[in-house]
Amino acid sequence: MPSLAERVRGNGRIAAGLLLNLLVSICIVFLNKWIYVHYGFPNMTLTLVHFVVTWLGLYICQKLDIFAPKSLPPSKLLLLALSFCGFVVFTNLSLQSNTIGTYQLAKAMTTPVIIVIQTLCYKKTFSTKIQLTLIPITLGVILNSYYDVKFNFLGMVFAALGVLVTSLYQVWVGAKQHELQVNSMQLLYYQAPMSSAMLLVAVPFFEPLFGEGGLFGPWSVSALLMVLLSGVIAFMVNLSIYWIIGNTSPVTYNMFGHFKFCITLFGGYILFKDPLSVNQGVGMLCTLFGILAYTHFKLGEQEGSKSKLVQRP
């Protein structure tokens, strides 16, 4: 049985990990928005920087024996790597084009879309309670978008595409981890360089490489430092998520996620002075209620399933 000092040290490490994840998860949203608003850095190029830094970070991690890489056939990861490109690019385009509140609430639609995909394509069934929680989530997003005075049609198209591709990516990641018997870091280690190569080929067709607004354009030192910092923080987000789930539980990560959701919404309106109407506030509360209800029912069902397995002779 661990001593009091060991338990205190263990709890201290968990608290430090949660705090790090809170800081980097919120920071990456605000920093990327700042880069778009104040520097106009191209979206796909920023995503490419994130992918390259993430792969370099994972390479260092495996050299430090933080995880052991596993040989995987590239052909089985092609679709996953492509969807990874799509979900990050469209999510960043949504952040670039929308207010942080609309961007954050649109991401909440990922849960309903995943349920629809798993129901239609994988014949998975969900309880009535889980299905009912999708009503306040969806209603809240619609309310916020309808009453958003900075409503941007193109931004909503990007948000919708981001939600669709993100949902597909999350479903496929779960399936691939099960199929290939790997954890998230092992999968990302092979996926990140493939996604980087895909974006490297695509960037010249959509964004300039040289001159004003290009990757090799006349950027200020502060802009380049911000972009590099954004890449490092993006890697730290991935690493801290993996550490939290590995050292606590999905329950802790989910509940902590709601806290980050609220702070990001609040911080967006403080930092970027985005207007917020009463109806938008109602929409946000409606979505947050739906997310909390979904998490409560989902975790309850998972605990019930575990109890049945333990009791089975």
Automatic annotation (TrEMBL):
UniProt-annotated location(s): Membrane
Keywords, ordered alphabetically: Membrane, Transmembrane, Transmembrane helix
One CC-aspect GO term: membrane
Entries under SUPFAM superfamilies matching the protein: Multidrug resistance efflux transporter EmrE
Major subcellular site: membrane
Task performed by this protein: Putative transporter.
Protein name: Solute carrier family 35 member E3
Sugar phosphate transporter domain location: 22-294
Membrane topology term: Multi-pass membrane protein
